[in-house]
Amino acid sequence: MSEQIIYLVDDDEALRDSLVWLLESQGFKVEAFASAEAFLRVWRPEFNGCLLLDVRMPGMSGLELHERLRAHYCTLPVIFITGHGDVPMAVAALKKGAVDFIEKPFNDAELLRIVNQCLANEQESRARRRQDAEVSRRLDQLTQREREVLDLIIVGKLNKQIADVLGISIKTVEVHRARVMEKMAAQSLAELVQNVMAIEGSRQA
Questions:
Q1: Residue 188 is part of which domain span?
Q2: What CATH number is attached to the domain comprising 196?
Q3: If you count DSSP H runs as helices and E runs as strands, how many of each does the chain have, helices first?
Q4: For residues 88 and 202, what is the distance between their CA atoms, to the nearest angstrom?
Q5: Nearest to 196 by CA among 155, 159, 158
Q6: What are the recorded Gene Ontology BP terms (predicted)?
Q7: What tens digit of pLDDT does each residue of 27-74 get?
Q8: Residue 163's CB: how many other CB atoms inside 10 A?
């Protein structure tokens, strides 16, 4: 699993230095940038961790960078650093997918709590995306007939009902069903249904 890194983007050098010191003293790996443009030049979709982002900066603002990253389906969670007058903007950013914001001057313990929660959530969602990708890959390996049987299993049909719908014998349904369970690496019917419904839901989202 790739290492989580806290990416810090803030044009205030003193604040940047103090935040880097605070976060590194807690064992976090930090990469700091003086501008949104500098971060955007190095950003890659595979970045893991979170983004601590100042709302107001010369040139591209934090809000503009957030919009740009969203357009590129960036999965890094964003925590905005805001001055007092920037709270309404930060709240608007939350509605567009940012995970939290913290007001300057902020409490170190509160910042660390937010960052820790953010990193834990990011790790969990990354694991979920990996699982969804694996389920999707396995689904694509099913034959057309196996997929038809699976679709009928998902809606709760029994073997005899599936046989009637598809015009095949119950024995053939049992063979297809066993192959579906094997190919999908499902230990139980409940696990099979949950995994497939989760991936179907994400495809429709």
A1: 141-204
A2: 1.10.10.10
A3: 9, 5
A4: 31
A5: 155
A6: phosphorelay signal transduction system; regulation of DNA-templated transcription
A7: 999 999 999 999 999 999 889 999 999 998 999 999 899 999 988 888
A8: 19
